[in-house]
Structure formats: C-alpha cells, structure tokens
C-alpha cells in the first residue's frame, strides 16, 4: 500500500527527515538536528558572520549531545533502580550493562 502526503507550505519552509535502520537516533544525530533548528544564518550574510554562526552551531551540537548522553544514563539508572526495587535484579543488571 502506498500513501501520498500533500501539504501546502510557505515559501522557504524546510522539512528534514532523518531515518535509521534497526536503531534509534544517536545523541549526535539528534543534537545536529536540534542545532539546525536553534542556529541559522542567511545565505546572504557576511562570510565572517556565517563562519561565526557555523562555529557556534558546532559548539551547541557538542553541548546538546553531551547532555543527551547524560539524560540517557540518568534514565537507565532510574529504570535499573525501579526494576531492582520491583524484585527483578537480573533484568535490572541487563539494563545497567546497556
């Protein structure tokens, strides 16, 4: 079955699609998508300004990826403790090892 999608978008509206195969998105991939939404600069901007914006975007990507990795680790800790408290120590240990 094939489905068609048609949406009227304003001129210049940008849609990005990022897919993976048999895995979720990495913190780095999501950070790059997020940074693209946070930082943008006009194609007609002065080259020095474009360079500065690009460097800032890379900095933001690194920071976002770092905090996403910390959030993932924190969530796994929460799941580990919840499973341990519920009497499933083997399952909790499997989660901890991810």
Describe this structure in words.
By secondary structure, this protein is mainly α. The chain has one domain. Helices cover about 60% and strands about 0% of the residues. Helix 1 packs across helix 2 and helix 2 runs antiparallel to helix 3 (about 90-95). It is flat, with a radius of gyration of 20 Å. It starts with about 25 loop residues before the first helix and ends with a helix.
Describe, in short, the structure shown.
The protein is 61% helix and 0% strand. It has helices at residues 27-38, 47-85, 89-97.
Largest sheet: none
Anisotropy-based shape = flat
Provide the β-strand percentage band.
Answer: under 5%
Rg estimate, integer Å:
20 Å
Summarize the amount of helix as a percent range.
55-70%
Output the number of helix runs: 3
Mean pLDDT: 91
The assembly state of the depicted protein chains is: single chain
Low-pLDDT residue spans: none
Distance between the termini: 37 Å
Number of domains: 1
Q: Helices and strands, in N-to-C order? A: HHH
* Category by helix and strand content: mainly alpha
List how many beta strands DSSP finds: 0
Write the layout of secondary structure elements.
Blueprint: H1 27-38, H2 47-85, H3 89-97
